[in-house]
Amino acid sequence: MNSDFFDWDDANISHIAEHDVSPEEAEQVLLGDSLEIDFDVANGEERWTYIGETNVARILTVVFTTRNEHMRVITAFSPSPLRMRIYLEWRAQQS
């Protein structure tokens, strides 16, 4: 895990594990060529949602916020079919 950019603790690690996602996979999505699909403010906290691929081409949705100049993953999971289609169309346009 990259502690220079990310804020990990037992809470967010165990939460994404419930979705069969590892911290390394979430980091790969956020540090790679990913697509921002949403921005929201929840409980006064800014949250961004991205879709991207891991190093083994697994496509994931990752929601994060920033705390103390670090990215803190809120959740990560497989995208819905609609968001998957949006991402794949975007990737095709990037080629």
Describe, in plain words, how this protein is organized in 3D.
It is built from three helices and four strands; from the N terminus they run ααββββα. 33% of the residues lie in helices and 36% in strands. The protein has a four-stranded antiparallel sheet. The longest helix is centred in the last third of the chain and has 14 residues, at 81-94. It has one domain (10-94). Strand 2 and strand 3 form a beta hairpin. With 95 residues, it is of the alpha+beta class. The model has no long low-confidence stretch (mean pLDDT 95). The chain is globular, with a radius of gyration of 13 Å.
Terminal-residue CA separation: 29 Å
Number of strands: 4
Low-confidence stretches: none
* Helix proportion: 25-40%
Q: How many strands, what sense, and barrel or not for the largest sheet? A: 4 strands, antiparallel
Q: Strand sequence of the main sheet, in spatial order?
A: 1-2-3-4
Which helices and strands, and how do they pair?
Layout: H1 10-17, H2 23-31, E1 35-42, E2 45-53, E3 59-67, E4 70-77, H3 81-94
Antiparallel strand pairs: 1-2, 2-3, 3-4
